[in-house]
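Saturday, quiet lab. Running sequence design on the structure tokens for the scaffold JK sent over.
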């Protein structure tokens, strides 16, 4: 889409708007990069893995424990 301008003032105004939008986009990108860096810190990765490990390990440990209890009852 081609825009037609009637004066140099309109062109200057549009250039200023585009420059400001570019600056805003740069700042947003910086924030996203910092946010990603924060999420990738080892301590944050461990915290995120805690929930997964808990959901996987608790049923596994309980199953193993129940099997041991069951085998001990059968041995008696």
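Result came back. Writing it out in full:
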């Amino acid at each position: 889409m081609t825009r037609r301008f009637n004066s140099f003032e309109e062109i200057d105004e549009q250039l200023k708007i585009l420059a400001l939008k570019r600056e805003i986009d740069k700042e947003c990108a910086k924030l996203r990069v910092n946010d990603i860096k924060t999420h990738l810190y080892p301590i944050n990765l461990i915290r995120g893995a805690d929930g997964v490990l808990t959901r996987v390990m608790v049923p596994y440990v309980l199953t193993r424990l129940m099997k041991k209890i069951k085998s001990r009852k059968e041995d008696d």
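Notes for JK: Residues 29 and 35 are 10 Å apart (CA to CA). Residues 42-75 form the longest helix (34 residues). Ask whether to fix the surface positions before the next round.
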